[in-house]
Specification:
Radius of gyration: 23 Å
Number of strands: 39
Structural class: mainly beta
Helix content: under 10%
Low-confidence stretches: 1-32
Number of helices: 0
Strand content: over 45%
Largest sheet: 9 strands, antiparallel
Distance between the termini: 40 Å
Mean pLDDT: 93
């Protein structure tokens, strides 16, 4: 399935006049909040989150905004983001606790790279006060998870035999559940009242050949009209509207095409969702292709034409780099920052962490830091289980990790990587009773996500003692040179650069952006251990 075309940039937009509309179904809303209670805030800048959160679905429940995003082969999947003002976001949890869709997601005889959790949907059902996550896996079937709190715990409600590709879930005003889905051919399914099965499905639209591909459905009911919000990858956004019911007939209009985005060198904002504030204003959260960092969320206000079509508000003919902040009630608290220090002192991992495929939970633990026991015997990092990843903060950021390597065994490899389909790392190699700090580059995969190179050692140094501080700095601004650099410290203060700069790849076909990754794997035999008492993600 060809999901994304070449990344392009340009200008263009369908324009119209303003018309306030009632809340979209799935958005829990009482009467609009009085202006006197709305907080005056300074302007915000795009991207609102400079991390890799793609294929966003966004909702509001009361005074809280939630969003979900794609995670492919990372576990747990489908992060739930939370905000009180649409501008400042934190990671609250995950809708898919484990990728239990086959052994390939365990790196057990097969691999699930660029499979798993693709574009999916997040919705809230007021009648039972329940959150729903819905997504297809491997083009084979659809999974539905539910939770009474967006933060979790989430559990699987059902599996549906129809794979709802790029699904958008609508909770209608009469509490009926509908799903819009498809690629080029768009269909609508009705689910049973308990959400466990499909009642009917019907094709409702075929994309004209002049438009090409449409996908990424988001399904809304606004002022009695049904809307299916669709993306043309990777440079356009369209909307279908029906006044005749969820099964149509639908008419189509262009929302944007070849619109200049707010990230220099990045692509066109597209594929996201609409949400209405407590005060009645509308916003569109999309993503911008901004490799090597990934697909990054941006936010713009939306108005409506007199006949009910959405219009993105522009700044000098482009998606604005800055807009007035949404007028919302004063947030009840500040959200957790996306950067900072993690000492791994909780009962579970902070939700900013995701494993590369499912972990072997017998081989890691928390308490006095993060302990990683070797879980795989391999010379290939792409096959190594229990590699723990963290999104990179843009435009540039640095990961610094303290590593106790005193319990490593001969043949073990442990360290800090810049991980994607082309990768590099700094870390420890223990061989013949001797431990060295090394920089390794040239780890690569082909277009089918098979390993083509396990990397080459480009620099090394001797390591005294049993602890070291490793550092990786990543410049993920789109365009050349996209450098990643590595250094280490044996005293915790003074750092020594190791190896050449690594040029991070910007091919979109891996979809996920680069991540910082903590790893420990064996090349000879299991039994070795490293302990990580501290991780810090910082920006200049």
């Amino acid at each position: 399935m060809d999901r994304r075309r070449a990344l392009v940039a340009g200008t263009g937009l369908f324009a119209g006049a303003f018309l306030p509309l009632a809340a979209a179904s799935g958005t829990a809303a009482a009467a609009p909040v009085p202006e006197s209670l709305l907080a005056a805030a300074p302007a915000y800048t795009n991207p609102v989150i400079w991390q890799d959160f793609a294929d966003i679905d966004i909702i509001r429940v009361g005074a809280t905004y939630y969003a979900s995003a794609s995670t492919m082969h990372y576990s747990p999947g489908a992060p739930v983001l939370r905000s009180y003002d649409l501008v400042h976001w934190e990671i609250a949890g995950h809708s898919v606790p484990v990728l239990d869709f086959g052994s390939k997601y365990d790196l057990n005889g097969a691999r699930g790279y660029v499979r798993g959790v693709w574009a999916s949907s997040l919705a809230y059902r007021p009648s039972n006060r329940t959150f729903y996550w819905l997504g297809q896996i491997d083009f084979a079937r659809t999974y539905v998870y539910t939770a009474t709190a967006a933060e979790g715990p989430w559990s699987r409600l059902t599996t549906i035999g129809t794979p709802y590709y790029d699904a958008g879930l609508l909770v209608d005003t009469d509490d009926t559940l509908y799903v819009a889905y498809g690629n080029t051919t768009i269909s609508v399914a009705q689910l049973s009242s308990d959400g466990r099965s499909q009642v009917r499905t019907q094709q409702v639209f075929t994309t004209p050949s002049s438009v090409g591909t449409l996908e990424g459905s988001r399904f809304y009911k606004i002022n009695g009209q049904y809307y299916i919000f669709l993306t043309r990858p990777a440079n356009g956004q369209y909307v279908l509207k029906s006044s005749g019911g969820p099964f149509g007939p639908y008419t189509m209009r262009q929302v944007l095409l070849d619109l200049r985005g707010p990230i220099a060198g990045g692509g066109v904002p597209h594929q996201g969702g609409l949400v209405q504030t407590q005060g009645g204003a509308w916003y569109y959260m999309a993503f911008v292709d901004a490799y090597p960092g990934g697909r990054v969320p941006v936010l713009a206000p939306v108005t409506w034409t007199s006949d009910g079509w959405p219009v993105v508000q522009l700044v000098n003919g482009a998606w604005g780099a800055s807009y007035p902040s949404p007028a919302v009630p004063t947030p009840p608290r500040q959200v957790a920052p996306m950067t900072g220090v993690d000492t791994f002192d909780g009962t579970g991992l902070n939700p900013s962490w995701e494993w590369n495929h499912n972990p072997d939970n017998t081989k890691w633990s928390l308490g006095n830091g993060l302990t990683l026991r070797t879980a795989t015997v391999t010379n290939d990092l792409y096959w190594a289980r229990n590699t723990l990843t963290h999104r990179i903060q843009g435009p540039t950021s640095t990961a610094t990790v303290d590593l106790d390597h005193s319990a490593m065994r001969d043949g073990d490899r442990a360290g800090l990587a810049l991980l994607r389909d082309s990768s590099a790392w700094i870390g420890l190699k223990r061989d013949g009773g001797v431990t060295r700090v090394v920089m390794v580059g040239g780890l690569t995969m082909d277009g089918s996500w098979n390993t083509t190179s396990t990397g080459t050692e480009l620099a090394s140094a001797s390591v005294p003692g049993g602890r070291i501080r490793l550092r990786a700095t990543a410049d993920i601004r789109p365009g050349a040179p996209r450098p990643g650099t590595f250094s280490y410290s044996t005293d915790g203060t003074n750092f020594t650069r190791l190896g050449p700069a690594f040029s991070m790849g910007n091919d979109w076909r891996f979809f996920m952006g680069y991540r910082f990754a903590l790893f420990n794997h064996a090349t000879q035999a299991l039994g070795g251990t490293v302990r990580i008492p501290r991780f810090e993600l910082s920006t200049p």
